[in-house]
């Protein structure tokens, strides 16, 4: 058994300097910048009735609900034909 495990580890490689970590960090940073914007700026990208895409809170089903509020921004990036740029913030500039 030990031989099989060692053989498998010999076949593994680690990919480094691929840029994915940096891309994820940049995405997190620009998303945090968006959520720090004033409410009126974020509301430019508000969800439309009965949809999930855009800025808002998708889990509020009625005005009488009592919830801990949590903002969200739901976007459809792929496939590209389904990408609705109406919901993609222009501010911060690097978001798009």
List the helices and strands and how they pair.
Blueprint: H1 2-11, H2 20-35, H3 39-42, E1 54-56, E2 72-74
Antiparallel strand pairs: 1-2
Pfam family, one: DIOX_N
Domain Non-haem dioxygenase N-terminal: 14-91
InterPro entries: DIOX_N, IPNS-like_sf, Plant_2OG-oxidoreductases
Quick structural overview:
By secondary structure, the chain is mainly alpha-helical.
Structure description:
- This protein has 96 residues and is mainly alpha-helical.
- The protein has three helices and two strands.
- The longest helix is centred in the first third of the chain and has 16 residues, at 20-35.
- It is elongated.
- The relative contact order is 0.14.
How confident is the prediction overall: mean pLDDT?
84
**Element string (H = helix, E = strand):** HHHEE
The description of the largest β-sheet is: 2 strands, antiparallel
Q: End-to-end distance, in Å?
A: 50 Å
Please tally the β strands and state the result.
2
The value of Rg in angstroms is: 20 Å
Helical amount among residues, as a percent range? Answer: 25-40%
- Structural classification: mainly alpha
Low-confidence runs (pLDDT<50, min 5 residues)?
Answer: none
Biggest sheet: strand arrangement: 1-2
How many domains make up the coordinates? 1
Put simply, the count of helices is 3
What is the beta-strand fraction?
Answer: 5-15%
Shape: elongated
